[in-house]
Amino acid sequence: MKKIEAIIKPFKLDEVREALSEIGVEGLTVTEVRVSSDCRHANVFVTKMTKATDQDIEDILEGIGRASGFLRSRLAKAMDLRRCPELHFEYDYNVQRASDLTALIDSVQPAEPESDG
Question: Would you place residue 29 in the very low, low, confident or very high pLDDT band (cuts 50, 70, 90)?
């Protein structure tokens, strides 16, 4: 299972970008790949390193959905396995949450020290 995850993630980084740029979805990063114990399914988590609106996320997932058969066939050729896992794509909100938290922390001004005078 770890072997499959190790193969899918770097493959996806290049192949997803290339395939999706052809249909207008760009700027994605694959953050995690989880393969089921029977190796029939792989959850591929993607994110956009810039802030994404709900519409952006919907468009990303729709674009990936349209390209998933193509991506799976390219993955099957790249892997030496009897069965290529079915790919399921999910948006990873962790990068966006981290960015929002950083902005919130940066917006807080340090308290002025009280003087004893």
Answer: confident
For 18, 30, 34, 57, 79, the CA distances from 83, given in Å and listed in that order, are 23, 22, 16, 30, 9
Give the integer Cα–Cα distance in Å for 38 and 48: 29
6: its two tokens:
């190790």
Task: Report CA dihedral (12, 14, 18, 24) to the nearest 10 degrees.
Answer: 70
More confident residue, 100 or 90: 90
Q: Which residue has the tokens 């004893």?
A: 116
Tokens of 28: 């994605």
Domain 2-96: give its CATH code.
3.30.300.20
